[in-house]
From TrEMBL:
Organism: Algoriphagus aquimarinus
Gene3D superfamilies: Winged helix-like DNA-binding domain superfamily/Winged helix DNA-binding domain
Chain ranges of the Transcription regulator PadR N-terminal domain: 15-87
Superkingdom assignment: Bacteria
Keyword annotations of the record: DNA-binding
Protein name as catalogued: DNA-binding transcriptional regulator, PadR family
Amino acid sequence: MSNNNLIKGSLQTIILKLLEENEKMYGYEITQRVKELTAGEIKITEGALYPALHKLEAEGLLSTEIQQVDNRVRKYYRLTKDGQKEVTSKMSELQGFVENLQRILTPDLKPGFNI
């Protein structure tokens, strides 16, 4: 499935939501979780993921923690308090967008009906 442009616009929301559900994660773990949840339909590349993580960190929405795991250094990301608030905002924004998109694509459906 080629969703690259759709994913780019949703990547920050995906990251924030996964971190809300998992407390802390490292980059590779995020890519694998998305792949797992979508049965391989959505694959996030490192080239897309890390700039998004760095941007969220620069905006104060994520904090980082370095840990040594099996002789490897891992950088874990976790939501800050502002990041937790942003998850709610982004999810609401995305829900509104999906509802409007459904109205455009299937105008005969009654409001509140989800595909």
